[in-house]
Amino acid sequence: MSVKTFPLSREELEALTELYPTPFYLYDERGIRENARAILRAFTAFPGFKEHFAVKALPNPFVLRILAEEGFGADCSSAPELLLAEMAGLRGEDIMFSSNETPAGEYRIARRLAAVINLDDFTHIEFLQKEAGIPELISCRYNPGPLKSGNAIIGRPEEAKYGFTREQLFDGYPLLRAKGAKRFGLHTMVASNELSLDYHIETGRMIFALAAEIKAKTGVRIEFVNLGGGVGIPYKPEDKALDYQELSKGLEEAYRSIVIPAGLAPLGVRIEWGRTVTGPYGWLVSRALHTKHIYRDYIGLDASMADLMRPALYGAYHHITVAGKENAPAGECYDVVGSLCENNDKFAVRRKLPRIDPGDLVIIHDAGAHGRAMGFNYNGKLRCGELLLRSGGDVMQIRRAETAEDYFATLDMRALADFETEIKNEPAGLKKAEMGNC
Ligand SMILES: *Cc1c(COP(=O)(O)O)cnc(C)c1O
Questions:
Q1: Closest approach atom of ligand 1 to CA 230
Q2: What domain range includes position 382?
């Protein structure tokens, strides 16, 4: 069971919408900080423990800064994500660069920040050497293929594009050593939104055993393993959150039975959690604009899948409540929809909810990770802004909503004006010929 709450009363939320019109995201600083501390507390048994928050989950430097203050690093996979980590004051080994199909320029930025480069493929050893040089500390990403089952969002490892095979790792580490690398990490990421404790412990066992095998086969000593992200959150009220302490206990057991006998201790343990760090502490707040009754009953919101596309993309469940009607009986059955000209623009399908009237504030829960970040501009939709509820109770805007000017900003308006003149001045004959002879 997970209880779905929202940190503001209906009156407080109504007052907030006068300053910041809906839709917007609201993040809870206190919740994020307390959660970050719980994660660090759970893993104190691992001396080299580090959580690199996956920037893609919530790419906002204010939030990264809060997490950095709690002791988290960042996991980046593009140049702008590296720059966001830099804005949050992170550098060096606090940044993991777990990219794939990486352009040379991004490797150079990662080198400038002294980030830990996590190679996605054997051929990138040569590529990195040529384009940016081989750093002293380097990590490789493992794809277990048929040796590990996958899950719904990320798919089966065998079909996943990421990482080295086992054999490639046994060749890759000695090659990296020959090219000057001296310190080595080993990374894997095999699941997404996975709530099974056993699954994550099993991943730990797998990676510990592989580090031992790499040492035995190649003499290369892995200094840290990185278990990636992929810990799920209880999106549905009946789901149960993964217990960090239980996970840590299971990993400790695996560490004792595999890492210590292999002579690999101390082996650093790192993770790249995104979803579970901020997901439950963010809400998409929107207002019901319309009700519509045809073959089904619809509630039309001022937010759309351009603000939160997980339901449309994965059929993902996001809990919905109505401000001030938290305890009202769920006597209606609605499709809760946005305004995109796409019929899958639905936040909920046939959901039991209390009666919703135009003007009601509709709160979409667990949107603090992979929410605003996955937004887009299709249909000329402008992405909404982000607010931070500070630990002291104040609300601060940490990203404004997009405007039409933002949407047009990448168009070359001067070239458009020239184009207009050109079209007007084209000889009439040419226009006629272009139209054809019918
Ligand atoms: C997406 C991603 C993560 C974070 O995943 P969560 O499911 O948000 O924990 C971590 N590492 C890599 C390489 C990723 O691609």
A1: 7
A2: 280-408
